[in-house]
Amino acid sequence: MRPTSSLLLLLAVAPLAAAQNPAPSRPAAAAPAGPSLSLDDALALARRNNPLYLQSLTGRDRAGAAVRTAYGAFIPTFNTNLSSGYREGLPQFFGGVSFGAVSSTLNTNLSFDASVDLSPGTWMNPGQQKAGLGAAEADAENAGMILRQGVVSQYILALQQSALARLQDTLLANTQVQLDFARARLAAGASTDLDVRRAEVQVGQQRVASLQAHNQAEVEKLRLFQQLGVNQPGDVRLTTELPVQAPALSLEQLLDEARRSNPAYRAVKLREDAAGIGVRRAKATYLPTFGLQASISGYTQKYVEGSYISTLPAASQTAARAADARFPFDFTRNPYTVSMGLSYPIFNGFRREQQVREATATRSDASYNVRALELKLTADVTAAYLTLQTDVQSVNLNGQNAQTAREALNLSEQRYRVGLNTLVDLIQARADYARAENDRIAAIFQFHRDFAALESAIGRPLR
Description:
CATH superfamily of the largest domain: Outer membrane efflux proteins (OEP)
Oligomer: single chain
CATH topology of the largest domain: Outer membrane efflux proteins (OEP)
């Protein structure tokens, strides 16, 4: 054992050595804090700005338009036609008989038509399209949940990397203290220059580790703002602190909640309903279609050669001049027409049979999708629930390990200070503490990631 006088000299010289090798000085006033970003703020920004999420909402608009179109089939369609023409003043011959005026004429025609065709499928279509709209809305909600999981996961990763950067800063401060101890022991003659060099290498390596950790923390924040769909402001701070606490609900309660709340599951159920209506619509093509049509039209006509009118009888001249005066928009009405009827396709080349087969296959596929998602939902929720229980125990155990490693490091520092440990022992204790603290941080944020996965499987936030 080293002489007691050497130990006393070491204790006296250590403060002096620390004063000769001070830690890097800190600025007198703290730099102004950057903008803060909570998890709720991040989610709100993402819902307003994430381009992929906004793109996913267009399906809901298309489905809404399809519902309006389905109801619009009950409203008659209206068409109007306005035309103008010129006819050369030459007669036409039918069966050797000449017909038509010998004067060129101008004419305009105006017509209005209305029609509606109603079939059993027309009555079923709104229900099918409304089911499709419900599925599209559930898809949009599911896209929101996917966005939420992505933002939460990246926010957690950014928090984790910031915690690791702070750990590296702590380890850097610790290695600097070790270097100060080594220099103090060297000044007291209780150590060798090799210990100082080893301590200096540890400080240099730790500075590199700290620099890389801070860079990675900034990279993860940059990726977070990419998820949010906005540019990252400078020196942003993530402020949300998430508790390590498993949900209070039982596994059966979580499974029931998932069946009610999961938007992807609701979407496939609604598509199964829509496919069932599609089968009934396909079978309804064997039934007749009711049609109703109405039309009214008018015309005007003008002779191009005015001298032609003088060749007509006196009564006809008056009528011809009156007709010319009406050109081009004072129309003479034609008799209106109204018709209705039933049409029944007897044979259309087996297209109806093909439609029924395809609709039935679509319904079967939709049923299989529901069953597959039910199995996936059960597996995902169960796995996430069991994993969370393990995560809680891992967090507790790793917390105990980190505390023990911290105490061992403190003891090793004290023993090294009085010469009862070598620098190698101190470096090993610091490495053990670094691993234990890294494991503790990893366990905490793995719990939060698995919690987010459970929320995604359930279909709604749980905290």
